[in-house]
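Read as chain and fold; for instance:
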Amino acid sequence: MRRLLPALLAPGILAVALDRLGAAGGIVLFVLAAAALLPLAWLIGEATEQAAQYTGPGIGGLLNASFGNAPELIIALVAVSQGLPDVVRASLAGSIIGNLLVVLGFTLLVAQRGTLDRESAFTSLGTVAVAVLLLLIPAVAASGGNPDRHSLAVLSLPVAVALLTVRIVVSRRSLRRHRRLQAAADPVETEGWSLRLAVGVLALTTLVTAFVTETLVESLDAFADAAHLSEFFVAAVIVAIAGNAAEHGSAVLLAARGQLRLAAEISLASSAQVAGFLIPAVALLSWAIEPLALSFRAVEIIGMAGATIAAALVLAPRATSRAGGALLLTAYVVVAASFYLAGDR
């Protein structure tokens, strides 16, 4: 692994270096940064699987979500600093939808039929559902005027605090439950990496991923203009998928290796992390830069709600199915088409 690590990190470092030196155009940087996220995703997936040998799939999925969501946080804060509130909201909504439909969909599609931790799965989906309901407050208030007016940013503060409170309470309960399950499980022989190495690789890879993601979002305008796509579509679909590459790659890789529970936990925990932690964190941190209103568009609210319902229906049976995965991917195509047709405000 020590020999492979520099090679896997090299594309990301190259993309960031070219960006800092001004040695490449926006389109080239966007493509390079998006491609560099693929080996980084493999590294995060490998480190997560190794860490899960010690922590169990529940905490392993939470570890992946915590480290893997760093790119989305960087995307959001960079977009806030550049005065792109629509891009911030679109990338966050697209991240939730992508995790529930694309990541979970591919996970179920490539994995063998099996069972999940239903309590953990529906706890995550419940967190997303509560977030969507709370986000309706500023979304409805924004329907009759400027969605970025200061009063809406103020209205978003109690919504953000409520979301964080829900996430903290749910996370503490889930962690206690996963620790009990892990303590009750039979001890297993661990092979490969130590826990310290796995967490260290996760941290290092996440740091590089954050810089690569910053390059990605800074080159978004050039790519959108060249591809004749709206900024909203690029942020909600392309940037969200690239920012979620860690979850996409690692979950599918783990599912193909027979780690269905861990793979599903990654997508579900990540969607709950974005909804319950990342969105309110960005809203609160934005006050140090430019206050952000959580005034999501109707198409974004409907997309997040629809993705949550679709995932719940697919996971309702006791055993998973590949047909369920195909259904989620089909639903994502419909959502992506809706985002394309919606265009910018």
